[in-house]
Amino acid sequence: MSATRVAPSRVQASVPGRRTGRTVALVFALLLPAAAPTLQAADGQATAGTSSLLHPVFQDHAVLQRDRPLRIHGQAPPGTRVRVALADRLGDVHADAGGHWEATLPALPAGGPHVLQVRTDTAEQRVEDVLVGDVWLCAGQSNMELQVWRSLDARAEIAGAGSDAIRLLTVPQVGHPSPQAGFGAPVAWRTVSPDSVRDFSAACFYFARALRETVDVPMGLISAAWGGSRIQAWTSGDALREAGADDDALGVLDLYRRDPAAAAARWGAIWAGWWHDREGVAADDAPWRAASDAGIGDGWLDAPRDLGAWEQWGLPDLADYDGLVWYRTTVQLEAGQAARQAVLALGPADEMDTTWVNGTAVGSTYGAGLARAYALPPGLLRAGDNTVVVAVLDTYRDGGLSGPATAHRLQFDDGTSVPLDGGWRYRVAPGRDWPPRAPWQDAAGLSTLYNGMIAPLAGIALRGALWYQGESDTGEADAYADRLRVLRDDWRSRFGSQLPFLVVQLANYGQPSFAPGDSDWATLREAQRRVADEDAASALAVAIDIGDRYDIHPPNKQELGRRLARAARHVVYADPVPASGPTPRSARREGDAVVVGFAGIDGGLVVHGAAAPVGFELCGAAAGSCRYADARVQGDTVVLRAADVSAPVRVRHAWADSPMVNLFDRAGVPVGPFEIAIGRAAR
3-class secondary structure for 550-580? Predict the structure, then answer.
């Protein structure tokens, strides 16, 4: 493997254009009027009682992208003159009518530390220990969020962590229906230490550590991840609208910004349409309707008074159930209570609820540990019986409405409340066609995480993005390729048209298969492979051999980091070693065999633990026609035969949720999952 050395080995070594803090102060003295007050503050804060002049991403210990124009921005009173200095780069701008200002300074090479100073006539902000290097955005769901303390050999990894050349910033987990300019909570850049690295993204940290073995520049890591999140939540509303696949839900989201109660009611109608489109649902079956228990038909049973996870109710049908369960109760109100403003307060629902009161949808929330609070529109409550219905969807481990019953109540504006403790009934909705997610939900909505976690990074120059997500989208795997393209292009429109985009292919998870069959996980992995393969600025990190069949969160993030670093070296730093290991490039018939050709092999193909590769399938044109094939390595090809597939049209490999793989190259990278069509042999 070739090494790319692009800066001195010591971060604080002198580099062209470097200036000390004293030099920056001298530059400012020349730039500013002599009457300007001399103001200083520690820890990157503004002085003179003003709010911060700089956007919060510019703080002590920050890393800025090398060899790119430096866009420094923030807020000041409208029309205010703002002077900016970083090393010997200077800027002089005015805040616009909205108070936003931005200065673009000439690029700097890797190095530092530098001082960033921003001044107006009345205030100054000073940010110290700023490095210039490569900045990476690490985003996705729980496997990107998974912290170093949960990775392999965590105790030793944390105890030995220490680097001034790697800086860490974690974006607060905040969703929002509209794009935000700032973060939802305070942020801070931190140097690597046992304390700072413990809760940081393991995949992101191990990636940078491995990359610095050959790319000797400071690394700035920005982690923006949320467990259980879906890909549409990370995509901007503009990009989703242009894609045109979520128009109805985006319309509801627009309404939600103005009138959440009206949006909830409209979403209820969309949700009801989904319910009635389910196979086997009668036209008059509306479990949310406002009616007494006596009139709602069969199938409702008494729930345990303490509620809680249905897997713990001692019922065989619910012991391992992932899906939708309806809950229902009735509460009596006096006329004076019904006339008051009220909030329906529910305990946590694992993991998503959609809730109705008297037949009107009032809210929907994603989050297993979150209590719910839904403001009720005036006139919805009435004297006498009021019906509360909660549809709870669970897709992983325990599910249900938390208990006890006293955890749920109607809270009135005079401070009084009425508990929903009159007894709950439940009804199981069998089937795996799960309901749509409300578009305002944080991790499962539309553009919500983009708005709260990516939009605040606008204007930041990045070296590249790492994307590890997809587990939450396996139920809609057929749509993932298009959604991944939309996300990639959307982020490139914000961070640069050639933004390198490194995708982690989903790791193996679940029990091994006994026969060829369909797999949503395999379908999504294939979407990831194809999207990464079609774009020269993208690459795939294969993880099919480092998962855990018993844990959806495999702890071996060190090897994943090494593979991501390998992909980055190839795509970003022109290292000739292949980005992703062996990848299929052709499949052709030769007599009674099919020959699959591979590219990207480092040192030749090798088989682990057997005389021949396993996990290859030959498939005919009909559904269910795939059969395991006998495989034999021949140079850089694999020769396949399957006696019971007379007219194969495609080849699959590792096509299962948790497949067995034993074909690698000598660099230790496996042949990952794939499906390709069979062409004719070349003449």
Answer: CECCCCCHHHHHHHHHHHHHHHHHCCCCCCC
pLDDT for position 394: 93
**Burial of residue 410 (number of CB atoms within 10 Å: 0-12, 13-18, 19+):** buried
Given a contact cutoff of 8 angstroms between Cβ atoms, the answer to whether 45 and 125 are in contact is yes
Nearest to 203 by CA among 510, 481, 541: 541
Given pLDDT bands bounded at 50, 70 and 90, which one contains residue 280?
confident
User: What residue segments make up the domains of the chain, in order of their start?
Assistant: 273-429, 583-677
Helix ranges, 355-428 (H): none
Average pLDDT of 335-349?
96
Terminal-to-terminal C-alpha distance of the chain:
36
pLDDT band at residue 397, thresholds of 50, 70 and 90? confident
- CA 503, CA 529: separation in Å to the nearest integer? 8
β pairing state of 372-375 and 100-105:
unpaired
Helices within 368-474 (DSSP H only): 448-449
The bridge status of strand 219-225 relative to strand 583-590 is unpaired
Question: What's the Cα-to-Cα distance from 23 to each of 28, 40, 60, 282, 344, rounded to whole Å?
Answer: 9, 15, 18, 77, 60
> What is the rounded average pLDDT of the residues 312-330?
94
Q: Could you tell me the maximum CA-CA distance found in the chain, to the nearest angstrom?
A: 90
User: How many angstroms separate the CA atoms of 110 and 103, rounded?
Assistant: 20
- CATH number belonging to the domain at 273-429, selected among 3.50.50.60, 2.130.10.10, 3.30.2130.30, 2.60.120.260: 2.60.120.260
- 482, pLDDT greater than 60: yes
